[in-house]
């Protein structure tokens, strides 16, 4: 065993395949955030540059904490909410903890 911890991307993939009934707190690393944005952020509204900049600045200053805000994924794995936080993690080059929910019906979002 390599001792390497599971990446956020691997953890999210497992939950997409078998959605839990409640949110999960996941430590999102910048590499996983970039891949989620590239592969799962289809049809979402454009990111808000000011929010991304503000969130990234907070992450760089270690002033970003766990809130009740969630990343939301549809049953097909598409990201429904959280693109600004993910983009901020990429920009800041910092991991961040967040609640993640799975299996959200896009019609209800």
Topology:
Layout: H1 8-17, E1 24-28, H2 30-40, H3 49-60, E2 70-73, E3 79-81, H4 83-92, E4 96-101
Give the DSSP E fraction (strand runs of 2 or more residues).
Answer: 15-25%
Any low-confidence stretches, pLDDT <50, length ≥5? none
Structural class: alpha+beta
Helicity range: 25-40%
The succession of helices and strands, N to C, reads HEHHEEHE
Please work out how many helical segments DSSP would assign: 4
Number of strands: 4
Q: For the CA atoms, what is the radius of gyration?
A: 13 Å
Largest sheet: 4 strands, mixed
- Termini separation: 40 Å
Strand line-up across the major sheet: 1-4-2-3
The rough form would be described as globular
Structural summary, described in words:
This protein has 109 residues and is an alpha+beta fold. The chain contains 4 helices and 4 strands, in the order H-E-H-H-E-E-H-E. Strands 1-4-2-3 form a 4-stranded mixed β-sheet, with helices on one face. Helix 2 packs across helix 4 (83-92) and helix 3 (49-60) crosses helix 4 (83-92). It starts with 7 loop residues before the first helix and ends in an 8-residue tail after the last strand. The mean pLDDT is 93.
Highlighted features:
4 helices, alpha+beta, 4-stranded mixed sheet, 109 residues
Structure at a glance:
The protein is an alpha+beta fold and 109 residues long. Helix content is 39%, strand content 17%.
